[in-house]
Design a protein that fits this description.
Elements: H1 2-47, H2 51-96, H3 100-121, H4 126-146, E1 149-151, E2 165-170, E3 180-185, E4 188-190, E5 193-196, E6 199-203, H5 208-219
Parallel strand pairs: 2-6
Antiparallel strand pairs: 1-4, 3-6, 4-5
């Protein structure tokens, strides 16, 4: 009996020793693994870019973008300047030669006038010369009418300060007050714009004697 109990105690001691050894090895393994993890984390932390490096990278990127935009802006400014110069030159030429077509048409009338004057030097036929001048006048008038030029009507029309220029007033038995009696110089409208107002004389109504007579009749 004593021997068996002794063996049991030895077995318990051995088993407890092995458990202690296992526990110790486990702790050592855990310590080793924790050390390995710590080293890995440290390596990863070192490999990660710092905040300064990130900001520096962003700054470099922003500077590059700004430089690209600046170059683009300079190119656009140069293109716009060239466009402005080109359009200004075209506009100047347009104004300069705006009346080229009309002038070309008027040269025909001018040539006809010169021919009429030359023929008048060697001829005493006034009627023929008069007919020639009338034809030239008609031709000239047709050219200007096609360009949108119209005469402003005057005599017999109601005076309109927006169209007419009154230089005086006269009493008139024929025309009532405010109506144009006589045209001194012609006026013209070019495409609905008055370019020359006609100078006219406007009626102030019937003569004073007739006015007084009518007023007396009314009083009676």
């Amino acid at each position: 009996m004593k021997k068996e109990e002794k063996k049991k105690k030895e077995i318990k001691i051995e088993s407890s020793d092995s458990e202690v050894e296992k526990a110790e090895s486990k702790e050592e393994n855990e310590e080793d693994s924790s050390k390995e993890l710590t080293l890995t984390e440290e390596t990863e932390e070192k490999e990660k870019p710092t905040k300064v490096e990130i900001l520096k990278e962003r700054l470099q990127k922003s500077e590059k973008e700004c430089k690209d935009l600046e170059d683009k802006l300079l190119r656009l400014a140069a293109e716009f300047d060239n466009f402005k110069k080109r359009t200004t030159k075209e506009f100047d030429n347009l104004i300069k030669f705006a009346n080229q077509d009309l002038t070309l048409k008027l040269t025909d009338a001018l040539d006809n006038f010169e021919r009429a004057l030359d023929s008048a030097k060697n001829s005493t036929d006034f009627d023929s010369f008069h007919r020639g001048v009338e034809l030239i006048y008609t031709h000239l008038k047709e050219i200007l009418t096609k360009e949108g030029l119209e005469e402003i009507k005057t005599v017999g029309q109601k005076f309109d300060p927006n169209l007419h220029e009154a230089i005086s007033q006269v009493e008139s038995d024929e025309y009532p007050e405010g109506v144009i009696v006589q045209e001194i110089s012609k006026g013209y409208v070019l495409k609905d714009r008055v370019i020359k107002a006609p100078k006219v004389i406007v009626s102030s109504g019937k003569k004073r004697e007739e006015k007084e007579e009518r007023e007396e009749e009314k009083d009676k």
